[in-house]
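testing teh design pipeline on a random one, pls ignore if ur not involved
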């Protein structure tokens, strides 16, 4: 029974991730913050780094009503669309919501999109590097020095928690939805099994 429950939960996650991909013409346009080279905690650099994002609502004159939304693994800036809008939790009548795409999701510079460091030549990166890229987007690209909240689900919740550690004075609050403070053993196992399944494919060709 537990096996079927686990499989059901995985199916729900996969389906919800798929539903988050659609971007219609009635939605805010994709924008890109070109930040140049992004230095990682490891000392490596992602070259020609650009972070994808959309905005909802209007930034006030004091730039004091911004909320940062960060996304889950395999998700994109649509992940919390159901919470964004007039009268909703992330009320666009009050707040300017910046919804970002994480490193590695294919919209922000990723192994699948980088021309300078494609595929396996792309440097390894951490949650803290994602936070650093978002911080640079806000401060350097959008000129925002403080936000009302950082909001994120799942891996986005992990990013939100890291925001609280890395930049504790940057936000009034952190809203971490179903986060983890560290990656548990079961998640490591699932991810490793996923990698092995891909790498054992005859077409893997070393990542090419």
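output:
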């Amino acid at each position: 029974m537990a096996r079927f429950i686990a499989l059901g939960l995985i199916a729900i996650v996969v389906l919800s991730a798929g539903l988050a991909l659609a971007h219609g013409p009635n939605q805010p346009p994709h924008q890109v913050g070109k930040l140049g080279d992004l230095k990682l905690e490891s000392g490596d650099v992602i070259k020609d780094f650009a972070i994808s994002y959309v905005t909802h609502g209007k930034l006030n004159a004091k730039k004091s009503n911004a909320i940062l939304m960060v996304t889950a693994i395999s998700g994109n800036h649509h992940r919390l669309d159901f919470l964004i809008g007039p009268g909703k939790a992330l009320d666009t009548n009050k707040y300017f919501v910046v919804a970002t795409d994480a490193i590695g999701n294919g919209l922000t510079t990723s192994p699948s999109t980088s021309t300078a460091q494609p595929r396996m030549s792309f440097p390894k990166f951490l949650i803290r590097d994602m936070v650093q890229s978002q911080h640079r987007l806000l401060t350097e690209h959008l000129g925002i020095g403080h936000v009302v909240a950082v909001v994120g689900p799942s891996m986005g919740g992990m990013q939100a928690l890291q925001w609280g550690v890395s930049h504790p004075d940057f936000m009034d609050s952190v809203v971490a939805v179903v986060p983890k403070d560290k990656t548990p053993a079961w998640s490591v196992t699932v991810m490793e099994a996923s990698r092995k399944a891909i790498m054992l494919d005859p077409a893997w060709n070393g990542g090419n």
